[in-house]
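Email to the structure team, subject: Two-component system, NtrC family, response regulator GlrR model.

Hi all, the expression group asked for a predicted structure before they design truncation constructs. Nothing fancy, just the tokens so they can compare against earlier work. One-line instruction: predict Two-component system, NtrC family, response regulator GlrR, return tokens.
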Amino acid sequence: MTRPAHILLVDDDPSLLTLLGMRLESKGFRVTTAESGRQALDSLTESRPDVVLSDLRMDEMDGMALFQELQRRAPGMPVIILTAHGSIPDAVSATRQGVFSFLTKPVDRDELFTAINEALSQAPTPGSDTDSAWRDSIITRSPQMERVLEQAQMVAGSDVSVLITGASGSGKELLANAIHQASSRSDKPFVAINCGALPEQLLESELFGHAKGAFTGAISQHQGLFQAAEGGSLFLDEIGDMPLTLQVKLLRAIQERQVRPLGSTTSVPIDVRIISATHRDLDRAMREGDFREDLYYRLNVVNLKLPPLKERAEDIPLLAKHMVAQAAERHKPFVKGFSPEALNLLASSAWPGNVRQLLNVVEQCVALTSTPMIPEALVSQALAAEENALPSFNEARSSFERSYLIKVLKITEGNVTQAARIAGRNRTDFYKLLSRHELEPGSFKPGGDAPMGKAEHI
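Reply from the structure team: attached below.
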């Protein structure tokens, strides 16, 4: 069922606002009105329009200032400017800046509806209930997340490479899958691999495939994930952890649109859209020589940054209710939800592990509850258990590296040459490790202020 298009109408003349609003509603549009630019921006937090129709001359914030702020908050949202003071220079200036259309008051009825319909045909927001199926796995009412999703839908229509950045557990694979579902490749495979979870040779074999006998244990030919994703999308999670030698091979595959399996002498053509993700700072990794600049620019044609869960607190009760319903259906159908106090505790927690951590807490609560409504005490217990949970392999490795570096720097009193020798690394590599863990050798010299706490214990 098609929903009515939503128009945000902005004018500081109440009578004109009412008159134009009635005209738009008579055509079947859903209309939200605002008497100022500020009021219009405030309304975005509750409901996002498909098109904005704004007067140019308004006190405090005029139509062009509103347009510029809208583009910052909701890139790509079509804006039509109306003015009684229309002129060719104004129109040219407005359209050059990205305003969809510039109409002069009194507005011709047919001209207005033509402009609105044209704007709707290019609007990034969905026009019908079925159009939103691509994003069904992403539950949100956060304006910040909605902006990311708008950009995701816009970029899905092209075939450019997308780099998704964000903290671990923030939902990068879900967003990658949503982009795939919104694209013309949605009827082809979506294949995902974590580049930080496999040793180098196995990762190379998984990506590019191998011929029979390519290495010890290669008893048969193996098709790589590039070929498995043919016609669809390949999601490279934690791309920042990919070894440099494999980065070279990946770059070549993207540039030449073909792969050569390990141990093979022939290349195989590929048609794959690359979506990658990382929680690492790749700009810093490039400066330190850990990530190739040419590969970075191949992957980062469009960058989508996912906000951490703590920045979308309004989503926590929504996500928790959805997760508890799913968990209850699998395990305990009598569980109906969280008590108000329990929901408040969930909403006010920091969630360093983001959505993944929230899911763990919900699963624990459902597993342990004996009542239909999960009490606050059970949430508190689950949160405490999460704090003491076993870290992931990458987290444990990072913690050990930092502990080890602190230990050898203390032993050598900040002498990098000696510390690198003990660690069995050259000075360049050792400095890269120090930089990655934000450790300053000078702070370990006598009288320096060396880091303290649990990290210094191995």
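Confidence is low (pLDDT under 50) at residues 125-130, 452-458. The chain has four domains: 6-122, 134-305, 309-387, 393-456. Ping us if the truncation boundaries need rechecking.
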